[in-house]
């Protein structure tokens, strides 16, 4: 897959704005413009060569291994 295809697929779900609390209304935004912005943000990061190294986490089953 190309970087643009990856950004198009994952951008809207990774950069989705938080859900509104019931009873609150936010400013109306055209959803197509919002998706385009989200795709461009993810595409920018996919193109970047100097991203920080991801932090590693302990596996969920690490306690079981420590007991043995």
UniProtKB/TrEMBL annotation:
Residues 1-53 form the Rho-GAP domain. Signal peptide: none annotated. GO terms for biological process: signal transduction. InterPro entries: Rho_GTPase_activation_prot, RhoGAP_dom. This is Rho-GAP domain-containing protein. It comes from Albula glossodonta.
């Amino acid at each position: 897959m190309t970087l643009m295809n990856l950004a198009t697929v994952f951008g809207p779900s990774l950069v989705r704005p938080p859900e509104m609390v019931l009873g609150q209304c936010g400013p109306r935004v055209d959803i197509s413009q919002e998706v385009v912005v989200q795709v461009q943000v993810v595409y920018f990061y996919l193109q970047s060569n100097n991203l920080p190294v991801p932090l590693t986490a302990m596996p969920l089953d690490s306690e079981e291994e420590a007991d043995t």
